[in-house]
User: Which sequence fits this backbone?
């Protein structure tokens, strides 16, 4: 299951970026358990999120990975507004990104014990370079990339991202994100 906020923020993004009419059309044209009525604190099947994104891709002609990435960027900006206290300890993109696993998502877990969070292993962290390995059963590396881009944009930094998929194991996909300061 996936936290309702991920759905409500997605619908908001579609309304703002496209139109409320397109958001409605996306909901009506996707088979959904409860007609697309989501609350931010509820939990809904991850498959519904995938189905909504697939419909949006069909309606807009954009690709699913591109839409998920754009959504990640939008979501990071919303996190900044909704959970400023979780970002207080950070002053730049690398310090925030390196603390998602050990701090930010731990705080998220306290608020939403049923949230299914990915892991981000930091394998290298210097002034110039940050290397993170994303692992999740959901394979949302596109969302991760969007969130990373949103984070870099938030701090107004210039950082290059190199992304490489690693072999999956036990149904857990892995993606290596190498970020280098320009
Ligand atoms: C204030 C900052 C953040 C907050 C409040 C936050 C919170 C959350 C929440 C509530 C979920 C949904 C869990 C569920 O559906 O059960 C989530 C998932 C996720 N978060 Fe974060 N997050 C933050 C920052 C980040 C950043 C910077 C990244 C990327 C480096 C990231 C990567 C992800 C990914 C990829 C998922 C999807 C779940 C998965 O891949 O398995 N998050 N996060």
Assistant:
């Amino acid at each position: 299951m996936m936290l309702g906020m991920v759905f409500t923020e997605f619908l908001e993004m579609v309304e703002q970026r496209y139109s409320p009419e397109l958001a409605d059309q996306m909901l009506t044209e996707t088979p959904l358990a409860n007609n697309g009525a989501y609350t931010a604190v509820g939990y809904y099947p991850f498959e519904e999120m995938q189905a909504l994104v697939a419909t949006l891709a069909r309606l807009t002609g954009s690709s699913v990975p591109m839409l998920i990435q754009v959504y990640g960027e939008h979501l990071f900006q919303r996190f900044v507004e909704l959970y400023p206290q979780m970002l207080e300890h950070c002053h730049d993109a690398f310090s925030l990104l390196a603390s998602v696993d050990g701090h930010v998502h731990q705080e998220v877990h306290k608020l939403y014990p049923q949230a299914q969070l990915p892991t981000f292993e930091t394998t290298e962290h210097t002034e110039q370079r940050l290397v993170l390995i994303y692992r999740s059963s959901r394979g949302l590396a596109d969302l991760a990339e969007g969130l990373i881009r949103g984070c870099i944009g938030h701090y107004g930094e210039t950082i290059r991202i190199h992304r490489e998929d690693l072999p999956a194991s036990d149904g857990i996909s892995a993606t290596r994100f190498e970020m280098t300061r320009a």
